[in-house]
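Both lines are given unchanged directly below:

***
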Amino acid sequence: MNNKFELKITQSKFTVQKSKTQALLVFIRAEDDESDLCKLLNIDFGIQVTAAAIKKIKANTTDIFRAGTGRVEYCYIRRVVVEDDFSEDYFRNFFAAFVNQAADAKIDSLHILLPAYSAFKDFFASYNYLVQSCVEGMHYANYTFSKYKQSTEKQHSLAITLHSGETAGISKAISAAAAVMKAVAYTRDLQNEPGNVLYPRSLAESITKQFRASKVKVTTLNEKQLLQKKMGGILAVGGGSAHPPRLIVLEYAPINAKKHIAIVGKGITFDSGGISIKPAGDMWEMKGDMSGAAVVAGVMIAASELNLPIKITGIIPAAENLPSGTSFRPGDIVTTSSGKTIEIDNTDAEGRVILADALHFASQKKPDEIIDLATLTGACVVALGEFVAGLFTKNDRMAEELLLSGKRTGELAWRLPLFDRFNQLNKSDVADVKNTGGRWGGAISAAKFLENWVDKTIPWTHLDIAGPSMPNKFSTYSQPYMTGFGVRLLLDYLQ
């Protein structure tokens, strides 16, 4: 795991211990009484500040002043304005930036007076989750992918102490956030690995190692076993690479499981486009074309650590899409494990081809629900932008709950249609379906393609995460690395 600094987060009563460099962060709203805050800072933290100074800070968005008491060197007062643009992601986004700045300033001890829950009840179902979102932001601040950079600088240590008048459950929120963000960090590590390091076999090895001493069982099918199972989609896409494809199956089955959910993740470890090769610009991002697979692994980490009472089967079809003399070609007809055939119109529409076998495999497990995640189409990014996932399902309950989970976690999704009239876009004259549906409604035709391999009796949702998986500037924690989008969204849904 890649960390910028050594981070320790605890909770405490209103006391400040001696340290080399001390900093305190407090939140205030326009309607709060500045004299009350004045007394709190004076009595509990020994900070000499006047009500007039706090009133001046309230007139601006944020401020900082030097306390000069010897106990606390810096005091940050953050004014929070609850307006129409305030969201459940506010504190996560704020702390991802603030803690980073504190570490860069070589602050080694940061005390945070958490905001009161009463002002934010409309946004957080519980005070615990408000605190958890704060702590998640702190962990986001600590993420880096620097394993390939030489560094002689000693890692800085930052101790964060959380203070609140509402102490019940804060330690639980801290540990829950740690479990979730451990999963997100592993997901991001996989996404950020370069294609020369991460390919189908090494992806399988990394996941197997990750779960070696856990409640999750990992099974990997090699190319010979894929051939035995007639998984022609995975074999066709992976056929052009020197690194043969794999199918990775993760099983978490607690004895108290109340439900069985299959989660399928696209695992194209690098996508050149194959014979239908991509333009060179920004092709480096295609090392992240296995983001759906990485999310599956991340969800399994957190689900097992949080002891979720749900049986989860994670299914990862992994392949590398490269052009060579053994690559699949436009015009080829591929037979999948279900017996359905695919006319290959464009080898750069490869993700849906490997997912065909994986979704059929998932359907054979007879779960209560199937969810798949895939960096599937640029068309979805054109439609929804860089930070919103496309959500496709015919099940209204799944749609409603996943959309609410997206809102709670800040990992937003938006529902797009799956009208059967769109089926004609994927019609083929020579096979059961074609792997492209034309220019218009590209994200929809891709989802309709996948629908062909899902048991119609099983509720199914497809999440196109092509935009939000990649680095973007729409939050303080979604740059400069691959984002791990989808882990927190699915965990909230599962919980």
Remarks:
- The mean pLDDT is 92.
- The longest strand covers residues 311-321.
- The chain has 14 helices and 18 strands.
- The domain at 180-494 is CATH 3.40.630.10 (Aminopeptidase).
